[in-house]
């Protein structure tokens, strides 16, 4: 083998087979984008034909009516496919490599929504989207060559579950106390945080099933995963009711991976082999991406209207 090629191979932390997770994550991002667009259309139509609940949360009747909207059902099926591809990508590669790739869905959603809603994206909105995607891909570019996939210990898993329980309680309390003054960005951030835990727990469950270790702790993971998914899905529908679909996707594809990545780095040690400068890049990229989400919420034409 050529010496230069051998040196490059040694620098790559991922096994070649783990790179399969990257195209799977990209396909999932496409389904995520289209699914969000169809779900948004269904939510908007249901809310327009019922009592306004903007800032108060969709009620039970509205949630039931969503099941009768073909666009919402189609969008939900597409999101289901997105989850399948996301789980497949997590099976092959570390969280901090494939989870942030969902940001490509933001670009697709922004383009599709601007055509469907006949809304021209202004310069500040385009800049915000560029910040979101640029920050995420800067992160992935470094993570792909420094991340390592490690088995999750019982102690690490218990830590994740305790943090998730605290987040679920805090999210529920915040929603009950402030639901009448909540804006789309609140729903987006909370949904993104919850889905970050969903991605982490899904990877853990997949790993334990593969190893034949389905015991009480794995069962708790499944329960936590389902609880976070259900509450996150409710927040997503409310975000659709009070904000444009590309803002919703921005939160899910930026906040979600950042939470999953922080767990991967701090709790799971997936960046244990990363050089000091890589950690600095991770922080900088995360700040850029999150700032982009807030700028998108502030400057998007549909949000301002």
TrEMBL record:
Q: Which InterPro entries match?
A: Mg_trans_NIPA
Q: Which residues cross the membrane?
A: 20-38, 63-85, 91-113, 125-145, 157-178, 185-204, 216-235, 247-268, 274-294
Membrane disposition: Multi-pass membrane protein
Question: What is a single cellular component term in the Gene Ontology annotation?
Answer: membrane
Q: Which domain of life is it from?
A: Bacteria
Listed Pfam families: Mg_trans_NIPA
The entry's protein name is DMT family transporter
Q: Which organism is it from?
A: Agromyces sp. G08B096
